[in-house]
Amino acid sequence: ASWDNTIKLWRRDGAVLNTLIGHSKEVWGVAFSPDGQTIASASGDNTVKLWRRDGTLLNTLTGHSKEVYGVVFSPDGQTIASASGDNTVKLWRRDGTLLNTLTGHEAAVWGVAFSPDGNTIASGAWDKTVKLWQRDGTLLNTLTGHEAAVNAVAFNPQDQSIATVSNDKTVKLWGQEGTLLKTLKGHHDDVWGISFSPDGQTFATVSGDNTVKLWSREGTLLKTLEGHHDDVWGVAFSPDDQTIASASDDKTVRLWQRNNSLLTTLNNHSAGVNAVAFSPNGQIIASAGWDETIKLWNGNGTLLKTLKGHSSAVNALAFNPNGDIIAAASADNTVKLWSRDGTLLKTLTGHRAGVNAVAFSPDGQIIAAASADTTVKLWNQDGTLLKTLTGHRAGVNAVAFSPDGQIIAAASADTTVKFWNQDGTLLKTLDGHSDRIYALAFSSDGQMLATASADNTIKLWHRDGTLLKTLTGHQGAVWSVAFSPDNQTIVTASGDKTVKLWQLDGTLLTTLNAHNSAVNAIAFNSDGNRLASASEDTTVIVWDLNRVLSLEKILAHSCNWIRHYLHYNANVNPQDRLLCEEIESFNP
Fold it and tell me: Which of 34, 33, 32, 69 shows the shortest CA–CA distance to 48?
């Protein structure tokens, strides 16, 4: 719907199907009936028009005395609600019969929505209020709290909670009875529109700041979609939940792909994610962070369980070799052991400061924990403290067992790595970084060690302590490092928001850019074809490395993405329309 007074119908591939002409002023709102056969449009000419999909005008609903800003069908398709600058909401039958006029707002009504069960109507107005009505016109409640005009309202299709957006730049979430649950801030200008995904787990908002923002149903900001060059007025999810459409003052409608076949984004943490680990069989991904929780996901990104018990940030995670126990290291000075079903098995206490890292020995019998108290402690699974390893002069940030279990390596803010054996004998100190060391990892054959530092570099060492190579390229501190299971690739994560993959000789293979903030942790699955990265942006991204590292597959994916644009967009040069003709379609 557009200010050019028309409604345009498009195929999802971008082909224009029809242009509906009949309104004499700008068209503010448009809606499909539940059966998809009828379109309703709301206009500045004070009318609502009903159209067939083929463009035939069925009816014009007259009665409003000012602009009609919004229109919506009831879930059963029998009733139409329209919101107007005359301060009213009108309810109509599809044949054009006026059923009721809802009065009570003191300014123009911009937003209107039916509840999923069709029994409640919500309206949002420039009088800063939201009103809830029964279908017979009885006023149920008036929701106050916005500090400026309310532009749009939406019901969550799953639980009938309500979301509202306003010129006060906020989104508010309300219980179905009208209790204010949460106020969300993130947009930098008026928020014009809102829509829930069909499964109710996500909603999108659009704003005068030119962006579309995706939020979890609880109100966590998941992603900001940037690309429009002017105010974004409207947003909608496709019924299959895979595509988002946004409409803007820049005269374009943009379609956004929800799920990228090159990567899967895990969204549920409410704060930065510090740790991520795959179970040994690759079926479970564990993540943890500043929200003090541990989350367990299956391989396709479905959240299975949230483990709660720590009283401060969780800094590190490790699965035991059997995959049935998860160890979590926390800033609350403890390590907690959990079963995969979420049962808390044991709390290991003794450190005098936050625990930054945790690791199981290869046989699973010993747990090593590294702490800001400058020590590494060794425990058995029943919680018995076996040994405290001392020698570092500053907090210990990382710890790892060599694959043969003979060496315990620890990296510290004192810029060194120390090797101990299990009886606590200090074997070696590696000195070479110029700033704090945040992470270390052994190669699977135990012959190499990689260290990551606040000096923006990664160093590769022989097991005997010889420095082999320094990898440079990150523009920020390197927070995490890992070897691929076949020892052919090193992956690093940095405060510069990137993940980098390197050959052992230091050649950079690729840089993965998808996070919006520092990347704190990374982990390979056991066969090395998937990589998980955890970020301060509250997400974990699981990358399909077979596709990310294959130029042929990237080209195919890219052409899948752009093929319809090349074919249908009027601004594409004719010679460019053939760019992808030779590239085979991508098979997700």
Answer: 69
Residues 6+ apart with CB under 8 A from 343: none
Count of other CB atoms within 10 angstroms of residue 21: 11
Give pLDDT, residue 588: 45
Average pLDDT of the residues in 21-25: 98
Ramachandran angles phi, psi of 430, nearest 5°: -100, 125
Interatomic CA distance for residues 197 and 142, integer angstroms = 26
Asked whether the beta carbons of 96 and 79 are under 8 A apart, the reply is no
In whole angstroms, give the CA distance from residue 521 to residue 288. 10
Whole-prediction pTM = 0.70
Cβ-based burial of 368 (10 A; exposed 0-12, middle 13-18, buried ≥19): buried
- HSE at residue 408, side-chain half, CA atoms within 13 A, is 28
Distance CA 437, CA 415 (A): 5
Rounded CA separation 534/97 (Å):
56
Rounded distance between C-alpha atoms, residue 269 and residue 515, angstroms: 14
Question: CB-hemisphere CA count at 13 Å for 348?
Answer: 30
* 3 state SS of 577: helix
CA angle at 437 for the pair 434 and 443, rounded to the nearest 5°? 115
Contact 224, 212 (CB under 8 A): yes
DSSP state of 241: S
Q: What span, in angstroms and rounded, lies between the C-alpha atoms of 439 and 410?
A: 9
Task: Give 142-152 pLDDT, tens digit per residue.
Answer: 999 999 999 99
Instruction: Give SS3 for 185.
Output: strand
**Cα–Cα dist 124/103, whole Å:** 12
Integer Cα distance of 52 and 41 in angstroms: 11
At 291-304, the pLDDT tens digits run: 999 999 998 788 99
pLDDT digits (tens, 9 = 90+) for 516-561: 999 999 999 999 999 999 999 999 999 999 888 877 878 887 888 8
pLDDT band at 585 (very low <50, low <70, confident <90, very high): low
DSSP letter for each residue of 161-174: -EEEEETTSEEEEE
Which burial class, exposed, middle or buried, applies to 312 when counting CB atoms under 10 A from its CB (0-12, 13-18, 19+)?
middle
Three-state SS at 564: helix
What's the pLDDT tens digit per position in 363-412? 999 999 999 999 999 999 889 999 999 999 999 999 999 999 999 999 99
How far apart CA 47 and CA 69 sit, in angstroms, is: 10
Tell me the C-alpha distance between 213 and 121, whole Å.
25
Q: In terms of C-beta distances under 8 Å and separation of at least 24 residues, what long-range contacts does 141-148 make, across chains too?
A: 141/177, 141/178, 142/104, 143/174, 143/178, 143/180, 145/172, 145/180, 145/183, 146/170, 146/172, 148/190
Tokens describing residue 117: 């069960």
